[in-house]
Design brief:
Elements: H1 2-20, H2 25-40, H3 45-49, H4 54-72, H5 75-86, H6 93-108, H7 111-130, H8 134-147, H9 155-166, H10 173-194, H11 219-238, H12 242-255, H13 261-266, H14 270-289, H15 291-302, H16 308-320, H17 325-333, H18 337-344, H19 348-361, H20 369-376, H21 381-409
């Protein structure tokens, strides 16, 4: 039990320090996981680092490398203008378009992480060019991807439905999907109007005043787009791993000398990649040492039959702010539903929906994957900190908003 509290305390310290200093919480979490796991828990180093999210790392690294190349050779700049053209210059429609794209693509199969990683760099560049507030664009494209997360064809949806099957909650596949989609769509568009999105409809974007007359797609840009769309097609129709497919496309572009490969590697967003990966290692250690069980026991202690949906949404949201929703939070909490129902009562489907929604709404935090890739898509370094702070505030506030939502509707 002492080790469980120690690991939980390490996470709390990492979170507090990350909120008050510029230290990378991922690197700090790796150090804490090593100290607590090896020297206090008697674990082998291999067990501790076994929690490193390899698939997540490959997804982030591969996709951001590919889009870094596309940014360096000017493809994203031209694509940004083409995307704005689809909205006929109406700035207000641009964030809405990216929400719809995120939801649609994620629902088809790539899921929220891969979709956000593919769309966020493009969306943030379009926002910078068209004068859309970066934070506003981030919550639209990010929540769009999150809205499709629990599609029965998406990785997280498959994980969740498998977990629910094992606790005798099969047959609710599309209910799980639509409840999550409705929550994200509602809150994204509330945020859109709350933060001034409606004012953008009165503005028309005609292009940057930078003297660049020729923005036609030349052969290098067409080949870069072909590589990107090939990756998307392989993910959608061939079940390819988006990270590995992106790496292959990046190598092809480098061989053809279409993009500066070395410069692209240097410009990859290593800070958020390390941040998310390191925190996941510490969260996995927390799970192994029994620290997450403390949350479950706490749930049963503070919840009543009437409040349990709001309570579980809040607690899963708090944990998910700094950890992997699909890899840690939901696999750890969904199996507790039968025990919670036995202790405090309630509808098991309502509890499952509350956990799913509560855990996903907070993923716009920059310490979660979706928020991190949106942050990584910002091209101007001076804008990163301000957007980071606002995304962190949004993600943390969703713990309360999600709890209220689930209490009212479930």
């Amino acid at each position: 039990m002492s080790l469980a509290w120690l690991s939980l305390g390490a996470l709390v310290v990492a979170i507090v320090v990350s909120c008050t200093t510029r230290l990378n919480v991922g690197i700090m979490s790796l150090a804490f996981a090593w100290i607590v796991g090896v020297y206090f828990g008697g674990m082998r180093l291999e067990e501790v680092v076994g929690g490193f999210p390899v698939q997540l790392f490959l997804t982030l690294a591969g996709v951001t490398l590919l889009f870094s190349q596309a940014q360096i050779n000017g493809t994203l700049d031209r694509l940004a203008h083409a995307a704005v053209g689809l909205c006929r210059g109406n700035v207000g429609l641009i964030p809405v378009m990216f929400f719809a794209l995120g939801c649609g693509i994620a629902s088809l199969g790539p899921g929220n992480v891969a979709t956000a990683a593919m769309l966020a760099p493009m969306a943030m560049l379009v926002a910078a060019r068209a004068g859309v507030p970066l934070f506003l664009m981030a919550i639209m494209v990010g929540n769009g991807a999150q809205a499709g997360a629990l599609s029965p064809f998406a990785p997280t949806g498959i994980i969740v439905n498998g977990l629910m099957d094992r606790i005798d909650l099969a047959g609710y596949v599309f209910r799980t999907y639509w409840t999550n989609l409705a929550a994200h769509a509602t809150l994204a568009f509330l945020g859109y109007f709350l933060f001034g999105g409606w004012r953008l409809f009165s503005r028309v974007y005609t292009g940057p005043d930078d003297g660049a007359a020729d923005r036609a797609f030349e052969l290098p840009h067409k080949l870069t787009l072909a590589a990107i769309f090939t990756v998307v097609a392989l993910v959608l129709f061939a079940g390819a791993n988006v990270g590995m497919a992106a790496f292959a496309a990046a190598v092809l572009l480098a061989v053809l000398r279409i993009a500066d490969h070395e410069q692209a590697i240097r410009r990859m967003p290593w800070t958020p990649i390390l941040m998310v990966s390191g925190v996941t290692v510490l969260i996995t250690l927390l799970d192994k040492t029994g620290g997450l069980n403390l949350f479950t026991a706490f749930l049963a202690w503070i919840a009543t039959r009437e409040s349990v949906t709001g309570v579980v949404a809040f607690v899963t949201g708090v944990v998910s702010v700094y950890s992997s929703t699909s890899g840690v939070v939901l696999p750890a909490f969904l199996p507790t539903i039968p025990g919670l129902v036995a202790r405090v009562g309630g509808d098991p489907i309502a509890l499952a929906s509350s956990m799913n929604i509560g855990a996903h709404l907070v993923d716009m935090s920059p310490l979660s994957t979706t928020g991190a890739v949106c942050l990584a898509g910002i091209t101007e370094p001076g804008d990163v900190r301000a957007v980071y702070n606002r995304l962190l505030a949004w993600g943390l506030s969703m713990t309360v908003v999600g709890a209220i939502w689930c209490y009212l509707f479930f």
